[in-house]
Design brief:
- Strand 1 and strand 2 form a beta hairpin.
- Helix 6 runs antiparallel to helix 7 (191-217), helix 6 (157-186) runs parallel beside helix 8 (228-250) and helix 7 (191-217) packs antiparallel against helix 8 (228-250).
- By secondary structure, the chain is of the alpha+beta class.
- The chain has helices at 8-12, 26-29, 63-80, 94-124, 127-150, 157-186, 191-217, 228-250, 252-260, 271-299, 301-320, 349-363, 409-423, 454-464; strands at residues 15-19, 22-25, 42-45, 48-50, 336-342, 369-381, 385-399, 428-433.
- It contains 14 helices and eight strands.
- The chain has a six-stranded antiparallel β-sheet with strand order 4-3-6-7-5-8. Strands 1-2 form a two-stranded antiparallel ribbon.
């Protein structure tokens, strides 16, 4: 038997019940028409009609990997359906900011290594000793990668931040060791004997320097809950890199100094000598200034203690009195924000669409905006997810790169909210900056009440207010 309908009349005349001679057909119970379903949600990308597809990763998935795989899948679909002119455009990609941030941290890491090398050269007065100290940085960082691999870590924002932080810490042990070895060489000892005596004499101090950092960061890795995902990789990376720098200072540094280190006397007439002497003069003036402060403090013990106590108490008051605020994650500047539009509850989808098009036209006049993805009849919330609301719309506004504008995304979003309120009547506008975590929050504190009885909800909402 053919089970498919070939016309609307066949559906109308379909028998659904029979009682004796009485036959009931669908047309007796309902009106059957062949028409289009009424539109409930409209989507546009930069003014062109589109179908919006939102793809979310699982909580334990790598956002960058997911984004790359989705991009490949979309390219494959475009190739498969190229005869139908199927075209995908990505209006928002949370992995882009992650990659840019990671790239910026890598640049900072390189700058940090170079600056540390320069400072080592200025203080140690020896290119050989500066090179030996700088070997501790790559040796410790590369060895840290092994532990990161074994622990299942990735090169993400937090682990890269940890690596850039430890660059200055990694040379601490090496500096203390090499300075002491150099002091023994100045006493007339050979490089080998000086290396042995120097590390044996200073060993306990070097261990204490390192353990001070380790005991601060290791407990952070034991934090539970949501914060654990952020701090665990950060704290473990710092602690491991610092411990490896201790191992390098006890093994590699003495080995290198025993083979390559030698007493050097800088020629004051050479270019390098002039740079070193100029730096030493600046350093001497700073030391003299600090010595003067120290001398005054010893001569005015009571005033020093009172000032120290006042500053200590005042530092807490800066937080308690609101001069220094607090937040879970800094808002940052992701170059994106949401503009939510709400009309009176009686507004139809068509009315909301016209008001939204007017808003799009207004926003496109600003050069800071590079793209707008519009969803009419649907809004998203942190708790409620996507909700069908014909009287509301949501615009995801993408801005040009930070170097091409002189305002941040949160500031610009607030300016646009005020400008829209002043220029477009009949609608309420709410700007919601997108944080660096990829989420958009309406307010720092949100309370959502839900239930089947509106009167009961009204009573409870009044109590909450």
């Amino acid at each position: 038997m053919a089970g498919k309908f070939t016309s609307v009349d066949e559906i109308r005349n379909l028998v659904v019940a029979q009682n004796g001679a009485s036959i009931i057909k669908i047309k007796d119970l309902a009106e059957v028409v062949d028409s289009n379903k009424e539109e409930e949600i409209l989507s546009r990308l930069n003014g062109n009609a589109a179908i919006g597809v939102s793809i979310q990763k699982q909580s334990d998935a790598n956002a960058v990997d997911v984004a790359e795989n989705v991009t490949l899948a979309l390219a494959g679909l475009e190739e498969t359906y190229k005869d139908n002119s199927l075209k995908f455009e990505v209006s928002q990609d949370s992995s882009t900011f992650t990659l840019e941030a990671a790239d910026a941290v890598i640049h900072d890491l390189i700058i940090a290594v170079v600056l540390v090398a320069v400072i080592m050269l200025l203080f140690l007065h020896s290119i050989r000793n500066a090179v030996i100290v700088m070997i501790a940085v790559p040796a410790s960082i590369v060895a840290t990668f092994t532990v990161m691999y074994l622990a299942g870590f990735t090169l993400n924002l937090m682990s890269l931040l940890a690596l850039s932080l430890v660059v200055g810490i990694l040379v601490d042990d090496a500096i203390v060791v090499i300075e002491n070895i150099y002091r023994h060489m100045e006493k007339g000892k050979t490089a080998i004997q000086a290396s042995y005596d120097g590390i044996r004499e200073i060993g306990g101090t070097v261990v204490s320097i390192t353990l001070v950092i380790v005991v601060v960061f290791v407990p952070l890795s034991m934090t539970g809950g949501l914060i654990a995902g952020i701090l665990t990789q950060f704290s473990i990376t710092v602690a491991v890199a610092t411990l490896i720098s201790l191992l390098v200072a006890f093994t590699l540094i003495p080995l290198l100094t025993s083979r390559f280190s030698k007493l050097e006397h800088v020629d004051a007439k050479s270019i390098f000598g002039k740079i070193i002497n100029g730096f030493e003069k600046i350093l001497d003036s700073i030391v003299a200034w600090l010595t003067g402060i120290l001398s005054w403090s010893f001569n005015n013990k009571a005033i020093t203690l009172i000032l120290t106590f006042v500053m200590f108490v005042s530092s807490f008051m800066l937080v308690s009195n609101g001069f220094i605020g607090s937040e879970f994650v800094g808002q940052g500047d992701k170059g994106e924000f949401l503009m939510r539009i709400e009309l009176p509850k009686s507004a139809t989808l068509e009315e909301t669409n016209f008001k939204t098009m007017e808003t799009e036209h207004f926003l496109r006049k600003y050069p800071e905006i590079s793209g707008i993805f519009t969803s009419v009849g649907q809004t998203t919330g942190v708790f409620s997810g996507a909700t069908s609301t014909p009287y509301a719309a949501e615009l995801t506004v993408k801005m040009v790169p930070a170097e091409e504008r002189n305002t941040t995304a949160p500031e610009f979003a607030r300016e646009m909210e005020i400008a829209l309120e002043e220029n477009i009547v009949g609608a309420e506008f709410t700007a919601v900056p997108i944080a660096i975590t990829g989420t958009a929050s309406d307010a720092p504190i949100q309370i959502l009440l839900s239930g089947p009885d509106l009167d009961v909800l009204k009573t409870f909402s009044d109590k909450v207010l």
